[in-house]
Amino acid sequence: MTGAGDGIGRGVARRFAAEGARVLVAELNPETGERVAGELAEEFGADARFFPTDVTDRDQVEAMVAFCADLWGSVDVLVNNAWGAGTVGRVENKTDEQLARGFAMGYYGPFWAMRAAFPHMKRQGWGRVINMCSLNGVNAHMGTLEYNSAKEALRTLTRTAAREWAPTGVVVNAICPGAKSAAFHRMAAEHPEIEAAADRANPMGRLGDPETDIAPVAVFLASEGARYLTGNTLFVDGGSHVNGVAWTPDLDGEQ
Fold first, then answer.
1. 50, 25 in Cβ contact below 8 A?
2. pLDDT tens digits, the chain, 255 residues: what are they?
3. CATH classification of 7-236 is 3.40.50.300, yes or no?
4. S-S: 179 plus which of 3, 28, 99, 208, CB 3.0-4.6 Å?
5. Which UniProt keywords are listed (predicted)?
6. Coil vs helix vs strand at 238
7. What does the pLDDT read at residue 188?
């Protein structure tokens, strides 16, 4: 599971561990990665390991998958969650470098991981891929072009892989969560007005909790009960997707 050191990744990792899963905490930050792996072992008795992973580096992503297969003999579930590349700004002010980093983290990283994991899943005739996408892309939220674009590209990858891999027993689905992720908290720290506005805009009056609202859906998608569900996007967002969210941040003062 990539990006498991904080936010939604940590919440999903904790829920998987509570269900008895072995969890590979693939995380760029060694401090948070080690801490989460320790939490899973201590609180749930889980077989949890930390593996340092920069998902923008193909060699590291492939090494992550190989480590999992060597350690446990299989790769059963892949959760692509890592993100940390975004900035808030207008389309015309985005740079090539910002877009390239966004796609490296949000699209190529998951692609490399899926490509590496698929032979293991195909060999055993069973596998689950869960890609964390975003309503930002679906609703084309202002200010986050690289994030929106990479996440929508990832949804296309999700559907294409689901179609091609359907005969193999490997199912591929996406979750668009409405939750206070690590990326959300970083953005809110720079733009404090965002958190209250996001809560007000949600039909349920709040953004979700990673562990109690988002993670149970990921656990279902990883289960035998999801064996006939593939190529779908599940909007786990308190209803935000139904009518869309009016998201109009003030970008006139961007630096």
1. yes
2. 999 999 999 999 999 999 999 999 999 999 999 999 999 999 999 999 999 999 999 999 999 999 999 999 999 999 999 998 778 899 999 999 999 999 999 999 999 999 999 999 999 999 999 999 999 999 998 999 999 999 999 999 999 999 999 999 999 999 999 998 776 777 778 777 778 888 888 899 888 999 999 999 999 999 999 999 999 999 999 998 988 767 677 787 664
3. no
4. 208
5. Oxidoreductase
6. coil
7. 79
Tens digit of each residue's pLDDT (9 = 90 or more) over 107-126: 999 999 999 999 999 999 99
Task: Considering only the C-alpha atoms of the chain, give the largest distance between any 2 of them, rounded to a whole number of Å.
Answer: 54
Based on the residue annotation, tell me whether 147 is a catalytic residue of this protein: yes
Would you give the DSSP letter of residue 85?
Answer: -
Q: Where are the strands (E) in 155-252, listed by range?
A: 170-177, 233-236
Domain ranges of the chain: 7-236
Distance set, CA 211 to CA 8, 22, 125 (Å): 7, 17, 29
Q: Do the beta carbons of residue 202 and residue 189 sit within 8 Å?
A: no
Give the integer Cα–Cα distance in Å for 38 and 35.
Answer: 5
> How do beta strands 23-27 and 233-236 pair?
unpaired
Q: Are 17 and 23 spatial neighbours (Cβ–Cβ below 8 Å)? A: yes
pLDDT of residue 181: 75
d(CA 251, CA 227): 44
- Residues 151-168 have pLDDT tens digits of 999 999 999 999 999 999
Residue 179 DSSP label: B
Look at residues 51, 238, 242 and name the one whose alpha carbon lies nearest to residue 139. Answer: 242
> How close are the terminal C-alpha atoms of the chain, in Å?
34
